[in-house]
Amino acid sequence: MDRTEEEALIRAAQAKPERFAPLYEHHFTAIFRFILKRAADRDLTADLTQQTFLKAMVALPRYEPRGLPFKAFLYRIALNELHMYWRKRKEKVMDLSHAEVKGLSEELGMPEQEAELASLGRALGRLSADKAQLIELRYMDGMSFAEMGAVLGVGEDAAKMRTHRVLSTLRTYLSPRA
Predict the structure, then answer these.
(1) Phi-psi category of 90—alpha, beta or left, where left has phi over 0 and alpha has psi -120 to 50?
(2) Per residue in 41-89, pLDDT tens?
(3) Best CA proximity match to 153, nearest among 69, 76, 71, 60
(4) Measuring CA to CA, which residue among 20, 58, 50, 19 is closest to residue 32?
(5) Which domains does the chain have, with CATH numbers?
(6) Which tens digit of pLDDT belongs to each residue from 86-126?
(7) How distant is the alpha carbon of residue 72 from its chain centre?
(8) What pLDDT is stored for residue 178 in this prediction?
(9) Contact 138/162 with Cβ under 8 angstroms?
(10) CA distance 28 to 26
(11) What span, in angstroms and rounded, lies between the C-alpha atoms of 13 and 1?
């Protein structure tokens, strides 16, 4: 679906909420996967995905594209739903696959040894939720800095700078104490 088609669907759904279905169907799989990577539970993911689309439909009359893809709007709502869920439970889970850890460990200049990867896991656990979110968007979801900026509501340069600061923090956590 190109941007023109999507904008036409958005305008139609803004006029009549019952016309939201094509947007839901087009973006459902991407949003479901996005949440599943963070929730690691299919039932919870289904609930949070439904909440995301329900909130998107309710907010749709006020939505303005502003040159950003509709998916960024949905990602932001999904992240908010996840944050609310984890805040209520007072826990946060970050489950990185081997490929995702490999990309992150390469970025940090770490060898791919089991002990080093365990250290990386402990360092990731020390990050605040907003800093962990940057790592998730970049290394779990493979987003570009421009895409991250759109999801977070900041510019591309700000997303890049924040990510590099988090990587610097991780390097500090990983450096041996003298």
Answers:
(1) left
(2) 899 999 999 999 999 999 999 998 777 789 989 999 998 898 888 777 7
(3) 76
(4) 50
(5) 3-89 (1.10.1740.10), 98-174 (1.10.10.10)
(6) 777 755 555 555 455 556 767 777 666 666 666 777 788 78
(7) 9
(8) 41
(9) no
(10) 6
(11) 16
Long-range contacts, 24-31 (Cβ 8 Å, 24+)? 24/53, 26/1, 27/70, 27/71, 27/74, 28/53, 30/71, 30/74, 31/71, 31/74, 31/75, 31/78
CA atoms of 141 and 71, how far apart (whole Å): 13
Q: How far apart (Å, rounded) are the C-alpha atoms in residues 164 and 167?
A: 5
Task: Indicate whether 157 pLDDT > 80.
Answer: yes
DSSP H helices in 40-140: 42-59, 70-89, 98-108, 114-125, 129-135
Query: d(Cα 147, Cα 54) in Å, to the nearest integer?
Result: 23
8 Å CB contact between 110 and 116: yes
Query: Which tokens hold the place of 152?
Result: 């977070």
* Token pair belonging to 118: 């365990």
Residues 6+ apart with CB under 8 A from 85: 39, 44, 48
Quote the pTM value: 0.66
At 113 the three-state DSSP class reads: coil
Residue pair 107/166 in contact by the 8 Å Cβ criterion? no
